[in-house]
Amino acid sequence: MSSPDVFEWTSQALDEATSLERVEARGTLRLSLKSSGLEAKKVNAAQMKTLLIRVLPGELEARGISEADGVCDRLVRQLASQRIGQAVDADSPENLFARLAGE
Amino acid sequence: MEIFALIAVTIYCCVSLFMAIRLIRMARRTREIPELMIGLAFLTGGMFGYPFSVASSVLLGASKPVAANVTWVVAQAGMALAAFFVLLSWRHIFAREIPGGRALISGWAVLLVASTVGVIMTSGPVPGTPVIQGFGWFMLITQGGCYALIGWSSYSHARMLRKRCVLGLADPVIANRIWLWGLSNSSITFSYLYTMIATIMVRFGLPSIFDPSVIAGCGLAAACCITLAFLPPRAYVERVRAKFAVEAA
């Protein structure tokens, strides 16, 4: 259900697509996840896609990466072609609290 | 103040009974553990622990010590069971993947049982400020800790969800619901803390600040939070969404 693969795949792809070192790529991704209220071990593909579109370009630009939007667009397309992190956690607290209120 | 306390206890018991029936019926349908645990916590805490504790004080005041003692024992058992079910719900909602979770729950359950049995064997109902000694401290900490734990986890998760809301990855109403759940558990935690502080003050010769109305007020606050979380009026939901839209903008 949880998908550490999505984080691992994205951090590796980010490392390969930019001049960031592996540790920097992972750290940048972790900081972006944290500022967005997401966790590396639970993030799914849909959440990562949103992060790549809306948060990561700004983080990469702040670290001097040129054409951050283009890099993130490519990562989004590549991530979509991977078959990882597709499952949605039905037992997450948010799904449970939606159920408890009869939604 | 006595009327306020009576009204607050009645409201808390009614909300607890309603939620217990609703969640236990839901659990029969869904076969899921969290709703069953929360439902049983409402049933044992809201229908046995809290009201029997109040009844014990009333019976003690009416010079019926035997009846007061019996209701007091039922209250202690109810409150311990409620704390245990709250702890189990925490495990199934917020801590499914923590290492050693089963051992933590088992150990905590042993402490809850030991402290409750110890209190029942060594003390009884008393008028005024509770006299807490030995097992009493042990019991207050192990029970209050269950509510503190789920309250803190709820706040923490609600804070994460609010960040996700900005990206459209979460519903602000659900984030608010989890925050309210944290608030209701925090108010119960506060009632435990208040009892401990009042006892410490008396022990050090300071005037007693213990007032049953404060405990009743905590119950009333918890009942309001639970109602807003699980039976929210449409106006409240719209207000939460509107407030979030303004913040996000």
Continuous helix count of chain A: 6
Largest interface (CB within 8 Å) is between: A-B, 21 and 33 residues
Mean pLDDT of chain B: 91
Helical content of chain B (DSSP H or I, runs of 4+): over 70%
Q: Shape of chain B from CA axes?
A: globular
Q: Strand count, sense and closure of the main sheet of chain B? A: none
Count of discrete structural domains of chain B: 1
What is the CATH C-level name of chain B? Mainly Alpha
- Unreliable stretches of chain A (pLDDT < 50, length at least 5) are none
Which CATH architecture of chain B would you pick?
Up-down Bundle
Describe the protein.
The complex is a heterodimer of chains A (103) and B (249). Chain A is mainly alpha-helical. Chain A has one domain (4-100). Helix content of chain A is 65%, strand content 0%. Chain A contains 6 helices and no strands. The longest helix of chain A is centred in the N-terminal third of the chain and has 14 residues, at 4-17. Chain A starts with a helix and ends with a helix. By secondary structure, chain B is mainly alpha-helical. Chain B has one domain (2-248): Rhopdopsin 7-helix transmembrane proteins, CATH 1.20.1070. Helices cover 83% and strands 0% of the residues of chain B. The longest helix of chain B is centred in the middle third of the chain and has 32 residues, at 135-166.
Question: Could you outline the blueprint of secondary structure elements for this entry?
Answer:
The complex is a heterodimer of chains A (103) and B (249).
Chain A: H1 4-17, H2 22-35, H3 45-54, H4 56-62, H5 68-81, H6 93-100
Chain B: H1 2-30, H2 33-61, H3 65-93, H4 101-122, H5 135-166, H6 172-203, H7 212-230, H8 234-248
Helix pairs in contact in B: 1-2, 1-7, 2-3, 3-4, 3-5, 4-5, 5-6, 6-7
